């Protein structure tokens, strides 16, 4: 990638990151806090909650049962549910999110942890090199608002600091999801989340295969979760054996 293309891509990513931070830290903070709690929610949001619960369980199932002695990055931790479960397995978890409000809520919700696990919370960019290296990285619904080129660029950056596997989700490019996104654009601009950027699985696989920073990894498990208005696809990248 030449410098001009790199600078353009970085500017695009930074702009998008700012939009996502503003939305989740201001517009949607209260709604997100309620969605990720046990408080009653509307029928539509209940399907989203159920879908997220299933997706989180899937990603946790793909991680080792015993994470003692391992370091895990929860990239886009939200209110911290996945980070807590990983820490209960003994992991040293670095949980980061763009929204300081959600990070503060995650910290407040963290119970006493088992098996020597611990969580270090941060607000900021998941690509910050100061976060260090990890055995596993999990990005649950943290890349769905970025276009596919930025997704693979972020995955490449994370992979270079990951020893075992990167687990992430993407928005599947299906006619139904595309229709739902189009309907969402009818709502007043101030009420909208940053638009989801769907991508077809075969296209994402091709981009991953063509990304130099991902050549040390190979695709693993893949699973789509659909629950009402929640549509997301889990994907695993595993470091190749020497």
Structural write-up:
The chain has 242 residues and is α/β, with parallel strands linked by helices. It has one domain: Vaccinia Virus protein VP39 (Rossmann fold), CATH 3.40.50.150. The chain contains eight helices and seven strands, in the order H-H-H-E-H-E-H-E-E-H-E-H-H-E-E. A seven-stranded mixed β-sheet has the order 3-2-1-4-5-7-6, with helices on both faces. Helix 1 crosses helix 2. It starts with a helix and ends with a strand.
What distinguishing features does this structure have?
242 residues; 7-stranded mixed sheet; alpha/beta; 22% strand; globular; single chain; Rossmann fold
| Overall helicity | 40-55%
Top-tier CATH class: Alpha Beta
What is the makeup of the main sheet? 7 strands, mixed
The count of strands amounts to 7
H-E string: HHHEHEHEEHEHHEE
Distance between the termini: 27 Å
Q: Write down the CATH topology.
A: Rossmann fold
Q: Can you give the mean pLDDT?
A: 91
What is the overall number of helices? 8
- Whole-number tally of structural domains: 1
The dominant shape is: globular
What is the level-2 CATH architecture name? 3-Layer(aba) Sandwich
User: What amount of the residues lies in strands?
Assistant: 15-25%
Strand order of the largest sheet: 3-2-1-4-5-7-6
Query: Low-confidence parts lasting 5 or more residues at pLDDT below 50?
Result: 186-191
Q: Which value, in Å, is the CA radius of gyration?
A: 17 Å
Task: Give the CATH H-level superfamily.
Answer: Vaccinia Virus protein VP39
What is the structural class? alpha/beta
């Amino acid at each position: 990638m030449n410098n001009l293309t790199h600078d353009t891509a970085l500017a695009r990513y930074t702009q998008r990151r700012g939009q996502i931070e503003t939305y989740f830290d201001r517009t949607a903070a209260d709604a997100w806090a309620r969605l990720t709690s046990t408080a009653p929610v509307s029928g539509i949001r209940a399907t989203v909650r159920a879908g997220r619960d299933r997706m989180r369980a899937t990603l946790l199932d793909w991680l080792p049962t015993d994470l003692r002695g391992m370091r895990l990055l929860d990239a886009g931790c939200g209110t911290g549910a996945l980070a807590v479960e990983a820490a209960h397995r003994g992991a040293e978890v670095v949980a980061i999110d763009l929204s300081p409000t959600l990070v503060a809520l995650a910290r407040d919700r963290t119970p006493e942890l088992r098996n020597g696990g611990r969580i270090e919370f941060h607000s900021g960019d998941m690509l910050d090199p100061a976060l260090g290296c990890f055995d596993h990285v999990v990005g649950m619904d943290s890349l769905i608002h970025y276009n596919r080129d930025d997704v693979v660029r972020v995955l490449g950056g994370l992979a270079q600091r990951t020893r075992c596997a990167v687990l992430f989700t993407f928005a599947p490019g299906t006619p139904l999801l595309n229709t739902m996104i189009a309907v969402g654009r009818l709502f007043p601009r101030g009420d909208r989340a940053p638009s989801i950027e769907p991508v077809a699985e075969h296209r994402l696989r091709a981009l991953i295969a063509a990304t130099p920073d991902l050549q040390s990894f190979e695709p693993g498990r893949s699973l789509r979760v659909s629950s009402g208005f929640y549509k997301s696809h889990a994907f695993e990248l595993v470091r190749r054996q020497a």
